[in-house]
Amino acid sequence: MSSPGDSRRTIARRRETALFLLAVPALLLLGIIFAWPVLRLLAMSVEDGTLANFEKATLDELYLYVLFDSVKIAAMVMAICLVVAYPVAFWLSRAGRWGVALGMFALLLPFWTSVLVRTYAWLVLLGRNGVVNRWLRDAGLIEAPLPLLHNTSGVLIGMVHVLLPYMVFPIYASLLRIDPDLSRAAEGLGAPAWRSFLRVTFPLSLPGVSAGCALVFVLSLGFFITPALLGGGRVIMVSMLIEQQVREFLDWPFAAALSTVLLVATLAIYALIGRITRGARHA
Question: Are residue 41 and residue 62 in the same domain, yes or no?
């Protein structure tokens, strides 16, 4: 006779099998939508039977510089979003019902507007005769207009504006899962508020920080519209090079190789962010 433990394990295995069978159609759909295009991209990049496209993409100084610049801009956007988003998420996690409603409305409002419209709005705000420069001149803070467009500063402003909610929401969700009694216990044991935050709250919120950083970084690397418009052709990112290879030169194999290099770099940096965050959490 089978024991009650064996019966429970059999039921659990059957349940897992049933759940897996239910997930098979979704897994197949995801494979068709995501895995097949990536495999097709890899095949296209070596369709001539050589690795010449990859050699050009990884050894040519121009493309290496653009890749490095793209990673640098993505890292700067990620860092700025983290510095701005953490206080906002922390305040939301401690705010009352109306404060949370107002904060969520302010964060979600940009999602109701197209990225293209928001980028053109920044063109109006940041131009030499735009709202920001006119206000600064009228206030007597500057004499000549500040160069806020067609440079890295304009690109950073536009990208941070678009990607900030993607950093706030994971951190906010992580902070909500922290038991407030832990901080109160630390303060009851004599720890000041800042030490309680550094030793209790912040380490426990690192999963949200890791998720937000990875999400913002990955999205930043593939940005096209915002750097193309606010950069004015002076700030080049890998996505713009890929578009140029397809639109102007019709060089699909080299565009596929650039895309593959970007994908590999993204996955490597994503893994590095996760490893750094896990190390900080266990430190």
Answer: no
